[in-house]
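Section: Multi-chain targets

For targets with more than one molecule, the full set of components is provided together so that the structure can be written out for the assembly as a whole rather than chain by chain. Components appear in the order listed by the source. The example entry contains two components.
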Amino acid sequence: MVALDDARRTLESGPPRKMVLMKRLFVWVFASAIVATLFCPLTVAQSAPPAPQARYIVVLDAAHGGDDQGGQLASGQAEKTATLVLSVKLRSLLSARGFQVVTTRESDATVTSDRRAEIANRTQARACLSLHVSDSGSGVHLFASSLAPASSARFVPWKTAQAAWITRSLALTGALNSSLQQAGIPVTLARTTLPGIDSMTCPAVAIELAPERDASHTVQSAPDDPAYQSRVAEALAAALLVWRTEAQQP
Amino acid sequence: MIPRHQVVLFSVLLVASLVMGVVLWQLRERAHQRMVAGQDSAHTQAPEVAPAEPATLVVANDSDGSLLTQTHSLPLPSDPGARGRAVLGKLLDLYAASGAAHPVPGGASSVTQVFLLPAENLSATASSRKPGLGSDPAATPKAQEDSNGTQDASAAEPTTPQLAVVNLTGAFVASHPSGLEAETLTILSLCGTLHANLPRVTQVRFLVDGVQRPTLAGHADLTRTYLTSDAIPADGGRP
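Its structure, encoded as tokens over all components, is:
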């Protein structure tokens, strides 16, 4: 008897309070969605801040390392040490400028050329710089791969993967050349065959830092001179800023 | 207590072993002496006195990273392989001289052999490199084999592109200055010099003591085929 009375009372008082609230909430959300759909594009076009920039990844490849000493500099320092120092300097400068930097090694570790290319290719980097140091020549030597340009394909041979990126690599070489020249550092441009570079699927340049010499070919700054390395790193960072700006222009 | 007959047997076997060792050593020495004597008495080919001819050398310069052509007069054999070795030897002599613009120790003895083969087996690597050697593998006639079974490239058509295989010594590679530019210039100057004197040579491969090596001195790739079109200096300009 008591149960029948409760049921009658419920029918007479209409739907429960919870259901009413949920209905109202649903109507409010639906209306908001319609309003947002109609007016949001206009709002974004008028006053929204610029869209967040996509990740701009730069790969720094400090050549040699571990068992591979590289060359021996006049100061007695191994090339692998000098390249790592240069890589650390450049990484700091690029990180301060908003680049996401990926390095192939952070310590005195052995990294094969295939592994270096693998790291670069996985990051889908916008620029890949292979850093070398030498006592021969003068200034900075910029090398792009000597592979002939080829159209990109889904599957490419590992040893000539760079062929599809040669045009961009040469453009990156030009940007680096301009910046280094502006910094008063003599530059030599050339093409070469370097196993790591030839397998990279990104704009890739091998940079060899040689001594700074005067007109009589006397060494003014050794390639492992910290001040000289800093100047070169600054110029390279400035070049990559220009490179990023040009890439983001429509 | 070891029985007497076992001691005697062991002693006899020990003496026999020592005697056999001495005899074998003497036989080995005799065989070695015979071999040395045979080499001394073998017929040697008298050096052919070739007339001096102008040879074009593509000489590297480290100061500006350039390749420059120089003409030198030197006796050149008529055999293309020997000719190639002679010009490369002269080039490496220039690099080994004091005050060289591209100093590389070693000299002429650093090139042990230069083999010339028809450039018919273009690898994928070589064919995808810069144009200029666009030889069609299908159009290249097969090399003729002589009675010794060795391939004679000179028997092919005169216009057939050739692959030169340069065999360097391990000492040369070990003493080569390490550096991207230095190694690249050495390779390009060797390729350019070969092509300048043997125009049919359009591709070059390098061996070190007869085997393939990954790099020259840690940088330049020695596993791939180089195209001489990459190494032709244009009025002293960049390769």
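Residues 4-41 of chain B form the longest helix (38 residues).
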